[in-house]
């Protein structure tokens, strides 16, 4: 399957870049702090993202306490509540998920899985992390400035975001915008690195169509991010100007509490277009790496090639492309030209087709597989179910007329948490259980891992599934309290209490997971090499964990695709990508070879 | 095996929850039954897919569990199967999209005979304006907003003189007559949402947005703001009263017009209204 003979490989062109001379660290400081090793940078990214993510987790507890038990907590005023939801959303979407998938998994896995020694620009890679760290610190600082962080909602819609009826108008919004601008600068440095590394530094024989889907996912997501973030960048800068210099990019004539402000001529809807031109691809910046990683988890743990590899690659590319022409489905009731609804509903529902194909291919990979119910597989299955659920509610919201009653209700909250919160996070967990032995040479505690999985999967479903029904009823989102509303029965308060309790438990399970991580780094059971019997290159390094430079004196050569599991006639049920074909190895038995 | 049982419970439980839970949409009070119908169509199509896929995964997990003596099948692609799945999915998508767009076409096309009513939002209250005898809403400008002219109506426009202004009261509408809401905001984004009508739209400062409904049952309903508009967002409520035609006309006749309000203001206050034209862009 997908073989090239050794002669073929010699005929292949070498990478454009010759072997790099790596800068080897000489001290603790250059090894662990100002490191230029992508693997260390990955861990720095992951640690920082996790820490700020824990802040967002605590914020979600606080907001759930208010929703479940209104009037019970004196320290949660409307100001606080709106600050919690804003910071929770922004941290989770940008500073945790984006940073973790691209900065964390991207840095660790790209060089290893494509057979490179490091990223092509290690110094810029280091800078990328430090700018990201500065952005995170700036964001965290908003909790301590006068007036506190902004409470404008994570979408930061003007005019409200920069007017005095919104918390954090003085400092919070300014620092938030500055932090986002910094994040984008840092990301661009890292992102260019990932793309160029994938294009230029692949090992001999690693054709694009032999790359593991993990790399395809991260690669396409990075391209999306490089194209989408500039749109956020300009909207952030323009909003900053509106706030600080009294320009009116997004500000029309405004009468605020009877007082006429000096703004005029700007368009609030322009901001929404710019924001969602970034914001929708952002969903896929988080989802596409998860698609890629989960494909590899399923294939490895079901001991079967991923079903329809070429279709999977094409689906990722098509989804990436389409994600740039669906943004206004976030704006169906924004007051934009209503005729846009026809176009954006159609483009949005078309995206469902390649996405559904990916789902079919994951479940068809399980068909006639040899399934290990290991932790990564459990999380992968959890992802599939959660993602199907979140995906089909997307068909409600994407279909413009169905969106009309549901937009701005709890249905939307439930939908996006399922599809871009819980689903990708389940993949992150599966990936950590999968690659932890590679990264540390040790196992995570499996008992705690199972506890973590069951509470997270079942708990998250219990939180978000019923929440959709509040949205059907018409319960709006971003309400500090529902108060007395005739159409909302008392049973809604009970359901809100239940959801809050479930959220507290699921949150606590994440603390158990963090404990497991820290404990296992030092005292976990030692792992043998390539414990999952995986085919991809990161498991074929000389040492585990891999050293700086990743591979031995010779870079690996790649003879086959990443999915030679259970090949008929082979001795083992897996053949590593760098294993030359046996003299008697047959050509591909069936199907078209994806080479 | 636990995972297979849980997956079956998820599939069966979700369907049971859908059927038996008390949380569902409110009784409809407008002409948008078709919106509910599109939701139901979407539920059927997606629900079948969800249950089928979940049960399929549960089956695979049981049937193809790891065994040392067995090997997974080696079959990278199956063009025919992939093609069929693509076609079926596309049909499902068309089945949801086509009726959806058809209803949307009606949603964005108010009937020509619809009554116009203006909804004005500001932090954090609702006010309403009827066109009065002439059936035409007078022109407005945010720059004209003042204490005595809270709607910013152009005083030189004759069409505005008989406009009926409602502040601090519910919006009254007659049963069975199509109404086109014209939405306007003085400060930030708001959203005019009545769950029983199934319809909503943002209010955007600097422009006028719209949607239309026909009320189909009498009663009192609540207006919710559905676009985050600052600290008082959750308290930005209003009332709406659907009445029989006669009751509505009686009520409407008792309300004051713009001209009357202006005269009252001149009589009782007799002071010039100062508009702070040199105010800073934002209040610190």
What percentage of residues of chain B falls in helices of 4 or more residues?
A: 25-40%
Q: Based on the structure given, which CATH architecture of chain A is correct?
A: Up-down Bundle
Radius of gyration of chain A: 24 Å
| Oligomeric state of the chains in view | heterodimer
Number of strands of chain B: 10
Helix content percent band of chain A? 55-70%
User: Which two chains share the most extensive interface?
Assistant: A-B, 129 and 112 residues
Low-confidence stretches of chain B: 273-284
Give a short account of the largest sheet of chain A.
2 strands, antiparallel
The total of helices of chain A stands at 15
DSSP helical segment count of chain B: 6
Shape of chain B: elongated
Question: Would you identify the CATH H-level superfamily of chain A?
Answer: Cytochrome c oxidase-like, subunit I domain
- Biggest sheet of chain A, strands in spatial order? 1-2
Whole-number average pLDDT of chain A? 93
Please give the structural blueprint:
The complex is a heterodimer of chains A (595) and B (284).
Chain A: H1 6-11, H2 28-33, H3 38-68, H4 78-114, H5 122-141, H6 172-200, H7 213-244, E1 255-256, E2 259-260, H8 268-301, H9 309-322, H10 340-366, H11 375-398, H12 400-406, H13 410-440, H14 446-473, H15 491-523
Antiparallel strand pairs in A: 1-2
Helix pairs in contact in A: 3-4, 3-5, 3-15, 4-6, 4-7, 4-8, 4-13, 5-6, 6-7, 7-8, 7-9, 8-10, 8-11, 8-13, 9-10, 10-11, 11-13, 11-14, 13-14, 14-15
Chain B: H1 2-20, H2 33-63, H3 79-107, E1 115-122, E2 125-130, H4 158-161, E3 164-167, E4 171-174, E5 179-185, E6 190-194, E7 199-203, E8 209-213, E9 219-225, E10 237-243, H5 245-253, H6 258-268
Parallel strand pairs in B: 1-5, 4-10
Antiparallel strand pairs in B: 1-2, 2-3, 5-8, 6-7, 6-9, 9-10
How would you describe this protein?
Chain A: It is a multi-pass membrane protein. Chain A: It comes from Sneathiella chinensis. Chain A: Belongs to the heme-copper respiratory oxidase family. Chain A: It is found in: Membrane. The complex is a heterodimer of chains A (595) and B (284). Chain A is built from 15 helices and two strands. With 595 residues, chain A is mostly helical. Chain A has a two-stranded antiparallel ribbon. In chain A, helix 4 runs parallel beside helix 6, helix 8 (268-301) runs parallel beside helix 10 and helix 13 runs antiparallel to helix 14. The radius of gyration of chain A is 24 Å and the shape is globular. Chain B folds into two domains: 2-66 and 76-107, no CATH class; 115-268, Cupredoxins -  blue copper proteins (Immunoglobulin-like). In chain B, helix 2 packs antiparallel against helix 3 (79-107). The relative contact order of chain B is 0.14. The interface between A and B is large, with 129 and 112 residues.
């Amino acid at each position: 399957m997908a073989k090239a003979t050794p002669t073929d490989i010699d005929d292949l062109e070498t990478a454009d870049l010759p072997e790099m001379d790596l800068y080897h660290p000489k001290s603790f400081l250059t090894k662990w702090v100002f490191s230029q090793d992508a693997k260390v940078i990955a861990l720095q990214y992951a640690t920082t993202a996790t820490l700020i993510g824990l802040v967002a987790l605590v914020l979600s507890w606080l907001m759930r306490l208010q929703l479940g038990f209104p009037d019970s907590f004196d320290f949660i005023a409307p100001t606080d509540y709106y600050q919690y939801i804003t910071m929770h959303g922004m941290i989770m979407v940008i500073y945790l998920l984006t940073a973790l998938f691209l900065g964390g998994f991207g840095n660790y896995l790209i060089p290893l899985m494509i057979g490179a020694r490091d990223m092509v620009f290690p110094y810029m890679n280091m800078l990328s992390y430090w700018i990201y760290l500065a952005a995170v610190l700036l964001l965290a600082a908003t909790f301590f400035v006068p007036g506190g962080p902004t409470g404008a909602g994570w979408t930061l819609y003007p005019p409200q975001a920069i007017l005095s009826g919104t918390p954090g108008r003085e400092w919070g919004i300014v620092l938030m915008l500055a932090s986002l601008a910094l994040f984008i600068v840092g990301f661009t440095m890292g992102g260019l690195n990932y793309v160029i590394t994938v294009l230029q530094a692949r090992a001999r024989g690693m054709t694009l169509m032999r790359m593991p889907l993990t790399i395809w996912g991260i690669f396409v997501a990075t391209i999306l991010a490089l194209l989408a973030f500039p749109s956020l960048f300009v909207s952030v800068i323009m909003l900053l100007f509106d706030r600080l210099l009294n320009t009116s990019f997004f500000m029309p004539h405004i009468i605020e509490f009877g007082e006429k402000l000096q703004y005029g001529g700007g368009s609030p809807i322009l901001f929404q277009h710019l924001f969602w031109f970034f914001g929708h691809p952002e969903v896929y910046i988080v989802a596409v790496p998860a698609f890629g990683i989960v494909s590899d988890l399923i294939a490895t743990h079901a001991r079967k090639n991923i079903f329809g590899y070429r279709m999977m690659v094409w689906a990722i590319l098509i989804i990436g492309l389409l994600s740039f022409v669906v943004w206004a489905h976030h704006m169906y009731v924004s007051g934009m030209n209503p005729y846009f609804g026809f176009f954006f509903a159609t483009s949005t529902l078309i995206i469902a087709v390649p996405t559904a194909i990916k789902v079919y291919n994951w479940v068809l990979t399980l068909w006639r597989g040899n399934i290990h119910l290991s932790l990564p597989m459990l999380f992968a299955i959890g992802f599939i179910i959660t993602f199907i659920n979140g995906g089909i509610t997307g068909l409600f919201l994407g279909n413009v007329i169905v969106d009309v009653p549901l937009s701005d209700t709890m249905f939307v909250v439930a939908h996006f948490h399922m599809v871009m919160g819980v689903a990708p996070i389940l993949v992150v967990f599966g990936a950590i259980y999968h690659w932890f032995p590679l990264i540390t040479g040790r196992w995570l505690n499996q008992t705690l891992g199972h506890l973590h999985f069951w509470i997270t999967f079942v708990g998250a479903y219990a939180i978000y599934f019923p929440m959709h029904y509040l949205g059907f009823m018409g319960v709006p989102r971003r309400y500090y309290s529902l108060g007395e509303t005739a159409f909302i029965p008392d049973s809604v308060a009970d359901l809100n209490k239940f959801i809050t309790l479930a959220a507290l438990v699921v949150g606590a399970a994440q603390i158990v997971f963090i404990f497991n991580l820290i404990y296992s780094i030092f005292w976990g059971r030692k792992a043998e090499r390539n414990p999952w019997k995986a085919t991809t290159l990161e498991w074929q390094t000389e040492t585990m964990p891999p050293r700086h430079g990743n591979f031995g004196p010779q870079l690996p050569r790649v003879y086959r695709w990443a999915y030679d599991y259970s090949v008929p006639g082979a001795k083992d049920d897996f053949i590593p990508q760098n294993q030359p074909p046996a003299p008697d190895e047959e050509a591909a038995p069936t199907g078209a070879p994806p080479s | 095996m636990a995972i297979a049982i849980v997956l079956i419970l998820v599939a069966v439980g979700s369907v049971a929850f859908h059927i038996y839970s008390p949380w569902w949409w409110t009784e409809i009070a407008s002409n948008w039954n078709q919106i509910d119908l599109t939701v139901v169509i979407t539920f059927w199509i997606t629900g079948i897919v969800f249950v089928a896929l979940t049960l399929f995964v549960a089956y695979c997990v049981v049937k193809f569990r790891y065994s040392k003596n067995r090997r997974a099948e080696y079959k990278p692609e199956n063009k025919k199967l992939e093609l069929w799945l693509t076609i079926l999915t596309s049909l499902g998508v068309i089945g949801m999209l086509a009726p959806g767009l058809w209803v949307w076409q009606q949603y964005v096309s108010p009937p020509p005979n619809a009554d116009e009513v203006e909804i004005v939002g500001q932090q954090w209250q609702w006010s309403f304006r009827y066109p009065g005898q002439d059936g035409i809403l007078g022109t407005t400008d945010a720059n004209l907003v003042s204490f005595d002219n809270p709607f910013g109506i152009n005083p030189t426009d004759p069409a505005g003189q008989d406009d009926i202004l409602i502040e601090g009261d519910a919006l009254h509408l007659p049963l069975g007559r199509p109404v086109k809401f014209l939405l306007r905001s003085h400060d930030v984004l708001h959203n005019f949402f009545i769950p029983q009508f199934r319809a909503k739209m943002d209010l955007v400062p600097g422009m006028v947005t719209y949607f239309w409904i026909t009320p189909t049952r009498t009663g009192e309903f609540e207006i919710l703001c559905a676009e985050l508009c600052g600290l008082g967002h959750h308290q930005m409520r209003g009332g709406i009263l659907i009445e029989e035609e006669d009751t509505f006309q009686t009520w409407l006749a008792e309300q004051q017009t713009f001209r009357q309000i202006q005269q009252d203001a001149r009589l009782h206050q007799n002071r010039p209204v100062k508009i702070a034209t040199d105010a800073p862009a934002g209040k610190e």
